[in-house]
Amino acid sequence: xxQKPSQHKLGDFLEGKGFYIVLFLCVAAIGISGYFLFSGLxxxxxxxxxxxxSAVSGQAEMPxxxxxxxxDPAPQEDGTAGTSPQEDTPAASTDTGDTQEDSPDExxxxxxxxxxxxxxxxxxxxxLEVFAYDETMGDWRTHxxxxxxxxxxxxxxxxxxxxxxxxxxxxxxxxxxxxxxxSGMESIYSNLAESVxxxxxxxxxxxxxxxxxxxxxxxxxxxPSHLHFALREYGVMIDPLNYLH
Length: 245
What we know:
The protein is an alpha+beta fold. The protein folds into two domains: 1-42; 106-242, Glucose Permease (Domain IIA) (Distorted Sandwich), CATH 2.70.70. The chain is 23% helix and 27% strand. It is built from four helices and twelve strands; from the N terminus they run H-H-H-H-E-E-E-E-E-E-E-E-E-E-E-E. Strands 1, 4, 6, 7, 8, 9, 11 and 12 form an eight-stranded antiparallel β-sheet that branches. Strands 2-3 form a two-stranded antiparallel ribbon. The termini are far apart.
């Protein structure tokens, strides 16, 4: 009996059960290939999501050390680096006690060396800007000097070194002597007695007697016996009390 060639046997096998076996293997191969294909498409890269994400986030929150090995402070909610609060230190006190500066007039008095022309208390003050009641004239007016109470005949002296520039009898202020002390300063002595000890051009020192207290000032006749004393600087009347000492 003749045997069939191997080719005829393979063909018979394929026509029988072998067809289904080959079909099954093809389907299995396609399925496995598809599994690996889809697994590669949907696979997540390393460090994406899950625990890897938490690890990355945790590293971001950790403070980092700088090149010197010091740890930077953790950022605060407002985005600025945390710093410890500093206490306000009060400024050092510069108060060295109450110091009162002298006014220009007081400084001038300290350096003027002007002495009182007569001994006595002030009966009427200097009042150039505020009106004061005048008992003699019966009205309100300014007072361009000070009235120093003194007895009739009391000696009146020059308040400082200078030169007599005027000896006159004023209609209202009576016998008056004017002394120039230089630098625009003049002293004026009124309500003197008729007889005086100096004349125009006389050089005087502080304490040189010019005359005596009289009653020649008609405009102040109602006042007690006194010397009307005034100071004038560059033609402007000033308060003698700021210069006398």
